[in-house]
Write a structure and sequence with these properties.
By secondary structure, the protein is an alpha+beta fold. A hairpin with a 2-residue loop joins strand 5 and strand 6.
């Protein structure tokens, strides 16, 4: 092998090592640190418009628990491969009452301040309901209440298991990166 061929082989090996290291880092970040998802419907409008692509942080709940109003990415409570993006409304052990479209927690006389809602409740959103959230589970709802498949079980194809187990939470949705960039509140 000539000196030139030897140099080429060494350079090729160097680049292959660098590329391999970059791929390992990419797969680690993509599978351990971040969640990427597309929101195909308007169920989270106006917070996350339909067809938006989001980044979430998988490590959000390593040292803390999910909180009310967090927007989370999670696997379907029914065990299918479907991922959802919804807002946490009820925490483990709480009672969630929905009366005339307003949400009350643990019998409080004051409705939740839901600044993020798209429109006033209408149709199925006005059905009065009451839920007791089991331990290690969460009650979630979409921000577009009149058009959301969520823990209320009011859509055409409701989830069989209305509550999201803690183990199904993939991460907290942080920001939208397409079609425009914005933080998720």
């Amino acid at each position: 092998m000539t000196e030139r061929e030897n140099y080429f082989v060494k350079e090729l090996i160097h680049w292959l090592k660098a590329l391999s290291f970059a791929l390992v880092i990419f797969f680690f970040i993509n599978n351990v640190v971040i969640v990427r998802a597309t929101v195909p419907t308007a169920s989270m409008d106006p917070t996350i418009p339909a067809e938006s692509q989001i980044f979430g942080f998988r490590l959000s709940y390593i040292f803390s628990s999910p909180s009310r109003f967090d927007v989370i990415a999670f696997e379907s409570p029914d065990g299918t491969d479907t991922r959802y993006i919804k807002r946490i409304i009820g925490l483990p052990g709480e009672t969630v009452d929905i009366i005339k479209g307003q949400v009350f927690i643990n019998g409080s006389g004051e409705a939740l301040n839901e600044w993020y809602l798209l429109e006033a409740p209408a149709g199925v959103s006005l059905i009065n309901q009451s839920f007791v959230v089991p331990d290690e589970h969460f009650f979630v709802m979409g921000d577009h209440r009149n058009n959301s498949r969520d823990s209320r079980g009011l859509c055409a194809q409701p989830w069989e298991n209305l509550f999201v187990p803690k183990g199904n939470i993939i991460g907290r949705a942080i920001f939208i990166y397409a079609p425009s960039i914005s933080l998720i509140r």
